[in-house]
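STRUCTURE REQUEST FORM
Protein name: Carbohydrate binding family 9 domain-containing protein
Source organism: Flavobacterium taihuense
Requested output: structure tokens
Priority: standard
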Amino acid sequence: MTNIKNILVFFIILCSSILYGQKKTLNTKSITSKISIDGKITEDIWNSTEIASDFVMYQPDNGKPISENKKTEVKIIYDNDAIYIAAIMHDEDPSKIKKEITNRDKFGVTDYFSVFINGFNDGQQDFRFYVTAAGVQIDCISTEGYNDFSWDAIWDSKTTLTDQGWVVEMKIPYAAIRFPNSKKQTWGINFLRNIERDVQVYSWNRIDTKIGAELTQNGILEGIENIKTPTRLFFIPYASFYNQKDDFQSDNTFKGGMDIKYGINDAFTLDAILVPDFGQTKFDNAILNLEPFEQQLNENRPFFTEGTELFSKGNLFYSRRIGGFPSGDPIVGENEEITNYPSNVDLLNAIKISGRTKKGLGIGLLNAITEKTYATIKDTVTLTTRKEVIEPLANYNILVLDQRFNKNSSVTFINTNTTRNGDFRDANVTGLLFDLNTKKNSYNLNGDFKYSTINTAEDYNGYKTSLGFKKTSGKIRYEVSGKYISEDYDVNDLGIIFYTNYHAAYANVSYRILNPTSIFNTFKIIEEANLEIQNTTGKIQEDYLKTTIGAKSKKNTYYEFSLLYAPKETFDFYQPLEYGRYVYVPKRISSYFGFELNQNHDFTVDATVSTAQYDEENRQTYGIYINPKYRFNNQFSLEYAFEYLTKRNDRGRIGYDTNGIVFAERNRETLQNTLTGKFALTNRMALNLDVRYYWSYSENHEFFTLQDDGYLSPYPSYNLNRNRNYNSWNFDLSYSWWFAPGSQIYILYRNYGLEDTRLVEKDLSTNLKNIFDSNLTNIFSISIRYYIDYNVVKNKF
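Status: completed
Returned output:
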């Protein structure tokens, strides 16, 4: 009898494995009658349509069937303009459905339903559409490992709450997605349901978490026939008004322009911005930067965040270079001073073309032109002024060819080019990349070769190459890789790189629990080892062993601990800011511990504490981050973040004199406070608050000169003041209203100021008083953008 039971269990498991390994198929049917998107699903056609059901858990207990009281049913129909999706989410206690109202493209604490559509069924790119239980729309373009939520499509949806759960109805026009111009369509499709209070996500076609690739695990949609790809032509004109004033001046500015989106064919889209306006993008988080590298800033301009996955291949594109800080330094005479030096360069226009053919060839072309920019220089004797070019008319260009095959592998060619008019440097970088995965997505081989050319008074070339191998599935995974970067490798005209002229080896091995146990919902432990050796000297510039443990409890609190040990003295080749020089870095051990409470609670918090101890007397670093959040109701929430970092007896370069490069031993403290608030009037209208106060100082107490061997020698006679005290204040209060599909009114009040002095002030209240007593800038702006769909206009006329 026991043998019969064992055979039966084995048979059930085998049948389940076969079932889960197969792709589910859903058939749809065409309609001629009108469908009302009201979330009620009352039209008769819905009653005769095939149902997608039998959802299985995606996270955390992968593969577990959904319970009967959470049964989910999805139907699809179509006409000549769009596909229509109806989803019924059963729930035994509808009063517990989470439904926080958020801004567009923000999930919040809410249940949601989503559909993943791949019109080419090639496992390469999904168009994903989400609707929350509060009716908020979220959409993105998804490629393996990358979700672009800055992409916005025009589609319609409506939700209703019922006694049995909740219902969503969606209309997705063909203009919002991509598919081949074929008589009979076969699309990849999947559906996702998130049940927030249980922290569970279910999918229609199983997404096996043991497999590294997600996009290849869609189901199949059949039955769509005789539809035509629409003309994808959209105009988004805008008009904006700015009033800016400070203690000395005030001015008003009117702007107008247009964005254009045009579908060149089934697969390729052209995006263009004419007379761009980025005045209402989020402020940059200014910091006291005492590192040898520039501060890397986030990109907040929609044109450079939306649909840029192709251009990000190989990490050769740092979009803040376009319209960033001027590249030239003006020549200043003995009696002259610079009275105006613009902090950025104006963008005149930009276009990008991107898409992928039916055979998997992705093509991306981006071109941008920035304006000639001048600095103003004043003669202090004659009081005359002159202008000097600090950034000429410049052209930035990127070309990407990305050939995907076997639905999970790719070979990529990328070229970036920066051409500046006149006696300024030009740059060109070419890269060849490959990313190869086995059929079952169990193993990965990746690598690259990149070559840079800089044209200046003295031309120079450099290269970078790497090779890596990974096991990407199962409970135990590992990776080994190596790379070599030559001395003159330079991508900083259109990309960003900090470290060059070294070779490195890296390895990691990890163990993870993929399904819940009696103790954890998830668990992982990662062991890493890294070694970097500078090419010219053979000295070690980085060497560490690192252990990271992360786990989510049964109550969905996430914990993470990391310990890094650098057992050898290393050398920093960048802090001296002089070619061929370096400074030693002592052995160190660092760690952090963090946790994040279950985000479903009205009050939640995440926090991290970190520390670093150096093998040098009293040299240490401590940090703390605390981020409490409170959701008053589904409309109103506040979030506060406190961050404090102190570095005791830190060492860094502060200057240069006749004795050589001067270093200082210094104490540094940084305090940052941010407050974020949201009040959603409706699911299309909201007030948002962003406040940030940042204070940091560096106080020097002992001085050294840098010796040729990289060690420091005391310099007690140095007496110049190289202390820093830095205050930064930002306040944004905004109102946004999506008054029509793709159309928005945005009103912003902005107040900001900055103080940077040599006088260290350690009293927080005094620093606050100083920043508010400084010359604060106030900006009030209003912008209106209206979305015009060529197809809608054509039909009306």
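Reviewer notes: The two ends are 77 Å apart (CA to CA). Residues 4-20 have pLDDT under 50 and may be disordered.
Form closed.
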